[in-house]
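Exercise 3.2. Students should predict the tertiary structure of the chain below and write it as structure tokens, then compare their answer with the key that follows.

Predict this chain's 3D structure.
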Amino acid sequence: MAVHVEPQPLNGPLPGGRAGATVAVEPLVAGHVDFPRAAMVDPGGSFKTLRLARAMSSTKQAEAVPVPTFLIRHPTVGPVLVDTGLHPSIASGGAENFGGLANRFGRPALEPGEDVPSQLRAKGIEPRQVPVVVMTHLHLDHSSAISEFPDSTFVFSAAEWQEAAHGSKPSLNGYRRAHFDLAFEYRTVDFDGDAVESYATFGRTFDLFGDGSVRLAFTPGHTAGHCSVVCRLADSDFVVGGDAVYMLGQLEGREPLPPRPFDAHNMRRSLQELRLFHAQFPGAVITPGHDPDFYARIAPRFE
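Answer key:
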């Protein structure tokens, strides 16, 4: 299916930043999907491809993993969202939103009121009041509820858009183009552009509001254009790692990496940047993508 929309490049910061601004971050779990551990942590051994295929096609090997999103409260920009979680319609069945095959094997699940728009409203924020949504990447479990934010500006990497919107076999690579083939305001960051600079251990970052409060860090590997998001709190940083690592143990070197990333070489490079950051700034939080234990105990707010 061809995509009918095209984003505009983002060559400089979005408006609204304030010099010295710090932010608060509130993690939100917006549903769960079934995913086999063998697809998240390489079990090793022989016949890996065959065993992975069996795990992906078997509901017996799947476990429910959280689908996290993050609300960033910026003092002058307002509420900023990272990823969108599962669409509210998932609460009554996921076939239409996720597609038949992905719904059958992913079995997305969402409790009433667990979707991001509902959680925002419970905090006194209407979806139309969210000026910016940052997408770590466009896999369907992250893009499921894009349609619920028609008034927002969406920001993601140019490399991610190219693969998600124009790459071959999108559904086999985790994309559902219906989620983002919408006449919304999409802006892409070219991480080879002039506005890109290094930050701490990250080689390529983009200062989203020009004040250092929210930076997109280019961490490809899981997908062609995956980004992490570095948020400046009052005394430390909070890093939304996205799916650069699925499990905290992968960040800490206690567990193997996933068996079939989009680009294994770039995944290792991105992970090294995250690990070095973790070592240099042990007080900073770095979130893994879908670790059930991590999200079961995460604090509701960081500032």
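Discussion points: The chain has a mean pLDDT of 94. Residues 19-297 form a domain with the Metallo-beta-lactamase; Chain A fold (CATH 3.60.15.10).
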